[in-house]
């Protein structure tokens, strides 16, 4: 029971969506299923927040190493959630001034916006910016022209790195028009349009077949890993 | 020298990266830009439409990718507004709404005060569900977008009247930082309705090479990373005479640090290989 | 204290003094806002209210003086402006209060700058500042997504469907239409999904999870086959001899490019056939396939580097521009001079 019904739901939801591509009468069903899916996706955000709460509360109550940072996480979570859900400091919308809750939760200047602009934004953006340093370190330590394949990879990377800035055109501007195709900026375009497209197209075709077979296995109940273990 | 390079503390490399990016920013180094065919076809896709065309702008990115995508999002909005198109903003990323708010404040309210909300542009906001959202809006907008991002009923918004689905749009512009993004728009909108939906996009450097197999049949225009943004900016700046408006030079400006950092990256790879081959030769002796 | 600690303490103190001097003497990091009064009056009745913005053209049609205070709603909206606008307004009229210094935004800019530095400090080594920043980002972002999910989807696409009157009277007065009870199903599925957090009965969440997995598989099955398999084969069926548009002869380089593209796709696909032993002709073809894939990975590396540098550039621009006022690429402080930029803080500490 605990596994049979979920298996039926999986198959039914998927098959309805597949059929909606082929039969006009089932297009509405597919749309309805997709809408429910979209709504459930928003509940997943709540689930994510709930999970985070659970893990960090556990860490604090067990006084595990670094529990002080978990307190900070919980505080940041609670403050953001409260000011966001309560629309704290948000004015009513201009269209409906008599309705206190009608304003946008993202109103510029509100505490929730402040947390976005001055905490969320710089923190997430800097986290990703750090990758620039690590990619440079990796370039120094890991990229070795050991064989033909590695030389091809590095050669292409050099051409792309030069060709996608003003350095490329400056380096090969002396080439005559009859050899314009060898100018780095043009070489970059050719590599992207020909070799890169060929390689990525082959990868794309392979992945598409993989996704299709995995999806079929899930829909037909051959792959049941998503239902987890347990009796049933 | 080789010995020193072999045991080089990686923090020296970090310092070099910091200097290679910060010095060109501090000295505001700029270089000439020549648009490539892909940037031109993106520009032409917007420019060739008659004024008043309906453009759906899906801003599927967040602050983490703003360095690459912010300039193109700004330039896209300016171009569409200057051409007199109707702008329909939406987002598949939770923070996308904020990106839309910023663009509306910085471009539309600042430079096109005559444009009226609901008549010339609308912010439909974010919906969860990734490709599930695309799957719905390609056939019926109202099922998900019952209101705009501010709770106004979609039927009360003049420019939404008569718009049933994405198929009613003259062009879809997608600014994409990953999943869901341009790939999903190609898969579930353009490929499913090739005659009704036309898409151009701008994406991060990580995604750009992966999207080339869709060009040109499924994706006629693509701006790849900050270089794509700079090329497109150049076209917009030249066409609309924005030479004196630094707001629309952000991508062009960022190509300065880009050049120096790319050269550093090449030097680092060469240095790493010099160490490797010196070590190899030493080991062989 | 060991020598290293002393060295770093001195460096940090010196940095703090410089920052403070930059803030106090040049006003660096300051933000300003323009005060916009918002006022609305009810020109309708209590039963059928009609609110009018006093600043709108419509307001001219009514005698607003006659409207009692109970039918008036107002607040102050604070719009961010550039320092340049503040300096210009103050140069014109030193007494003006319409554009003024904003503590909230200034402290925000400083908080954002410090958070940026906290994260970057990890480059030197792991430290408590980095860990604090990391803890904050985890908490804020999880709550941020929850809030967005609630106001952008749960309220308009779920609650507004099952209880439209309630939502209309509370957060979305402009909402129209009656209830759609079919949405009770996703509502129930949503509640079941949350049971995953419960220590008992977590198996109940398998039902909505099964629905999510099934829907994803259904959507992707056709989407990938159509766009990434069939269409890619279609995109690869291209002329190997490209005719010139004027009808005379053919275009040599375009033909070469198309031939290489087709060969590249086929060879790389052969490499992915792991069920055939890669020996002989197949092995050689697969080898060519690997070369194409290596070029692909090289291109991916080049583009990835390009992306990462741009992400770093915007953070450094923020530090140098918005926080330290070392650069002004957008001309936001064009009218500012060192003299004019003396910060209100100077007055506050009794130095102005």
Please tally the helical runs of chain B, counting DSSP H or I stretches of 4 or more residues. 10
Low-confidence stretches of chain B: none
Quote the average pLDDT of chain C. Answer: 90
The best one-word shape of chain C is extended
Distance between the termini of chain C: 39 Å
**Please, what is the oligomeric state?**
heterotrimer
Largest sheet of chain B: 6 strands, parallel
How much of the sequence lies in strands of chain C comes to 5-15%
**Element string of chain B (H = helix, E = strand):** HHHEHEHEHEHEHEHH
Please give the largest β-sheet of chain C: 4 strands, antiparallel
The whole-angstrom Rg of chain B is: 22 Å
Q: If helices are DSSP runs of H or I spanning 4 or more residues, what is the number of helices of chain C?
A: 10
State the end-to-end CA separation of chain B.
Answer: 19 Å
**Strand segment count of chain B:** 6
Mean pLDDT of chain B: 94
Walk me through what this model shows.
The complex is a heterotrimer of chains A (232), B (285) and C (352). Chain A is mostly helical and 232 residues long. Helices cover 69% and strands 0% of the residues of chain A. The radius of gyration of chain A is 27 Å and the shape is extended. Chain B is of the alpha/beta class and 285 residues long. Helix content of chain B is 48%, strand content 12%. Chain B contains 10 helices and 6 strands, in the order αααβαβαβαβαβαβαα. Chain B is elongated. In chain B, 59% of the residues are buried. Chain C has 10 helices and 6 strands. Chain C has helices at residues 3-26, 83-92, 103-120, 128-162, 164-170, 184-194, 206-236, 252-272, 280-323, 344-348; strands at 32-42, 51-53, 72-81, 99-101, 242-243, 250-251. In chain C, the strands form 2 sheets. In chain C, strands 1, 2, 3 and 4 form a 4-stranded antiparallel beta sheet that branches. A two-stranded antiparallel sheet of chain C has the order 5-6. In chain C, helix 4 crosses helix 5 and helix 6 crosses helix 7. The longest helix of chain C has 44 residues, at 280-323. Chain C is extended, with a radius of gyration of 32 Å. Chains in contact: A-B, A-C, B-C.
């Amino acid at each position: 029971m605990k596994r049979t019904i979920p298996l039926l739901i999986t198959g039914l939801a998927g098959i309805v969506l597949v059929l909606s591509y082929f039969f006009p009468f089932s297009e509405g069903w597919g749309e309805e299923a997709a809408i429910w899916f979209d709504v459930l996706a928003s509940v997943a955000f709540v689930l994510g927040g709930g999970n985070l709460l659970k893990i960090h509360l556990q860490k604090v109550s067990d006084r595990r190493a670094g529990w002080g940072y978990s307190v900070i996480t919980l505080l940041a979570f609670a403050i953001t959630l409260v000011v966001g859900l309560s629309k704290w400091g948000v004015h009513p919308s201009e269209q409906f001034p008599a309705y206190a809750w009608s304003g946008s939760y993202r109103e510029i200047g509100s505490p929730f916006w402040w947390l976005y602009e001055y905490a969320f934004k710089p923190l997430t953006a800097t986290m990703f910016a750090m990758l620039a340093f690590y990619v440079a370190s990796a370039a120094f330590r890991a990229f070795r022209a050991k064989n033909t394949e590695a030389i091809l990879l590095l050669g292409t990377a050099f051409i792309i790195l030069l060709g996608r800035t003003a350095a490329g055109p400056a380096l090969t501007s002396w080439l005559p028009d009859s050899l314009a195709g060898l100018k780095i900026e043009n070489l970059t375009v050719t590599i992207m349009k020909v070799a890169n497209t060929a390689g990525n197209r082959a990868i794309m075709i392979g992945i598409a077949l993989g996704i299709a077979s995995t999806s079929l296995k899930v829909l037909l109940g051959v792959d049941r890993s998503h239902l987890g273990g347990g009796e049933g | 020298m080789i010995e020193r390079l072999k045991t080089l503390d990686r923090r020296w490399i970090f310092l070099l990266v910091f200097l290679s990016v910060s010095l060109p920013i501090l000295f505001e180094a700029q270089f000439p830009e020549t648009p490539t065919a892909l940037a031109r076809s993106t520009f032409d896709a917007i420019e060739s439409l008659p004024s008043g065309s309906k453009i759906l702008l899906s801003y599927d990115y967040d602050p983490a990718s703003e360095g690459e995508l912010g300039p193109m999002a700004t330039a896209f909005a300016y171009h569409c507004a200057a051409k007199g198109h109707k702008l329909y903003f939406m987002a598949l990323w939770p923070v996308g709404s904020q990106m839309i708010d910023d663009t509306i404040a910085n471009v539309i309210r600042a430079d096109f005060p005559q444009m009226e909300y609901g008549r010339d542009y609308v912010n439909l906001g974010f919906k969860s569900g990734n490709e599930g959202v695309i799957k719905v809006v390609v056939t019926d907008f109202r099922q998900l977008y019952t209101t705009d991002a501010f709770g106004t009923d979609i039927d009360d918004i003049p420019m939404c009247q008569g718009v049933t689905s994405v198929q009613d749009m003259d062009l879809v512009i997608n600014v994409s930082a990953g999943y869901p993004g341009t790939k999903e728009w190609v898969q579930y909108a353009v490929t499913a309705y090739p005659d009704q939906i036309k898409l151009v996009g701008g994406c991060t450097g990580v995604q750009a090479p992966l999207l080339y197999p869709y060009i040109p049949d499924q994706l006629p225009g693509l701006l790849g990373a900050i270089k794509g943004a700079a090329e497109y900016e150049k076209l917009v700046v030249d066409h609309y005479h924005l030479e004196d408006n630094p707001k629309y030079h952000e991508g062009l400006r960022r190509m300065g640090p880009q050049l120096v950092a790319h050269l550093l990256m090449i030097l680092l790879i060469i240095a790493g290989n010099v160490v490797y081959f010196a070590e190899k030769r030493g080991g062989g002796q | 204290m060991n020598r290293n600690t002393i060295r770093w303490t001195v460096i940090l103190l010196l940095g703090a003094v410089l920052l403070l001097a930059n803030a106090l003497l040049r006003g660096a990091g300051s933000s300003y806002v323009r005060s916009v009064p918002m006022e609305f009056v009810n020109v309708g009745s209590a039963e059928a209210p009609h609110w009018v913005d006093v600043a709108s053209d419509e307001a001219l049609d009514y005698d607003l003086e006659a409207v009692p205070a109970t039918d008036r709603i107002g607040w102050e909206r604070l719009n961010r402006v550039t320092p340049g606008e503040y300096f210009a307004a103050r140069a014109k009229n030193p007494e003006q209060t319409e554009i003024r210094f904003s503590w909230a935004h200034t402290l925000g800019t400083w908080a954002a700058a410090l958070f940026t530095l906290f994260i970057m400090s990890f480059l030197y080594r792991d430290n408590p500042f980095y860990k604090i920043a990391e803890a904050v980002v985890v908490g804020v972002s999880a709550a941020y997504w929850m809030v967005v999910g609630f106001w952008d989807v749960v309220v308009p696409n779920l609650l507004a469907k099952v209880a439209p009157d309630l939502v209309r009277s509370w957060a979305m007065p402009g909402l129209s239409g009656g209830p759609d009870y079919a949405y009770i199903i996703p509502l129930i599925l949503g509640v079941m999904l949350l049971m995953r957090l419960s220590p008992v009965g977590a198996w109940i969440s398998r039902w909505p999870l099964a629905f999510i997995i099934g829907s994803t598989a259904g959507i992707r099955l056709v989407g990938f086959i159509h766009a990434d398999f069939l269409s890619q084969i279609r995109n690869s069926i291209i002329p190997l001899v490209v005719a010139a548009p004027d009808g005379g002869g053919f275009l040599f380089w375009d033909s070469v490019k198309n031939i290489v593209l087709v060969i590249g796709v086929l060879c790389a696909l052969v490499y992915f056939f792991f069920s055939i032993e890669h020996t002989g002709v197949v092995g050689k073809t697969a080898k060519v396939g690997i070369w194409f894939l290596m070029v692909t990975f090289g291109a991916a590396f080049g583009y990835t580097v390009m992306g990462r540098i741009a992400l770093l550039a915007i953070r450094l621009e923020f530090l140098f521009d918005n926080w330290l006022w070392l650069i002004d690429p957008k001309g936001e402080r064009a009218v500012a001079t060192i003299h004019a930029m003396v910060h209100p803080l100077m007055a506050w500490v009794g130095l102005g």
